[in-house]
């Protein structure tokens, strides 16, 4: 095995990371502006609670395509060239960014337009997420995979740091500017994917029943309690503790820091996560990985509670940063377990199931937070969600002993000995 750093030893990994960084920058710049525009447009004619409900609908619009397309998207990622799946998905996102730029330039932006684009972004992510997750292990040997996952997380988190802040600043400078910049970034990301050469991979039989192949991913996750516990822990913790969905409300009506402050709030969790990912790329977790995952989710919940109660911008930023640290530890363990424990021929389908859970926690978490805020107010919704995340951690520690007993990232072969 090579002793070189993965970035030096594997050119395809460099192109992959470049593509992921630029796409994440564009996605996060767009998402923060879409959320702001939806809430801002709604507030012109609605009170805070009804506008929060509209904000929740953005999450629903992004999640429904993933729910409907998950099995097919996972099967596609195991049947077709994963590089081309991601390339087509990126082209769709580029078109969405360009459409919003043109609508803003001509003063035609509206809630229906924003919801339509949110739904198209959901379609793109339904195919891109499992293909991207399944592609990464094809680029490096298994022994290097945990470091590659950490590097991929860094690329994602750097985009998540700079994207929201850039989106806020660009929107303050011009309504169409963040979408124009996102269009350029998606173009660069598409070029990066085009540079990735052919990669070795397994393939599923073309003669088998397609529907049976699609549901094999669900069966694998259901029967592997360690993978099921890790995925579902993230689902319910983030579903309940969706503080980031409430950031437009906090920025506009509670902390009163405007769109620029919203960029800072959106970037804070990613700063904590990126710093943690950088550390993990140098010193990946090797021992007590399951207990550390549970601890990370517990930290995520506690930080959410304090953020919900805060009225100080510095304290709020600190809480969101700590929230990002806890979330990154959980993400690192979960992704490593899924990628290492899953056979390559099933990584697309298992990745699709994982993507459904992730999107369920993110987009449905946004919807749940928005709807709950419409009923009981944003502060109560955020604090209650944080409490729920802590409760979920306690329950999963009891219900899934496989998590707390997971000491290392041992490959599946060792589990059968």
Word description of this protein:
The protein has 417 residues and is mainly α. It has a single domain, classed as Growth Hormone, Chain: A (Up-down Bundle). It has 17 helices and no strands.
Order of helices and strands: HHHHHHHHHHHHHHHHH
Shape: globular
Could you give me the name of the CATH homologous superfamily?
Answer: MFS general substrate transporter like domains
| Count of helix runs | 17
What share of the residues does DSSP label as strand, in percent?
A: under 5%
Classify the fold: give the CATH topology. Growth Hormone, Chain: A
Low-confidence stretches: 413-417
| Class inferred from helices and paired strands | mainly alpha
**How far apart are the first and last residues' alpha carbons, in Å?**
25 Å
Domains counted in the coordinates: how many? 1
What is the residue-averaged pLDDT?
Answer: 84
CATH first level: which class?
Mainly Alpha
How much helicity do the residues have? over 70%
What is the number of E strands? 0
Radius of gyration: 20 Å
Q: Strand count, sense and closure of the main sheet?
A: none
Judging by the overall fold, what is the CATH architecture? Up-down Bundle
Oligomer: single chain
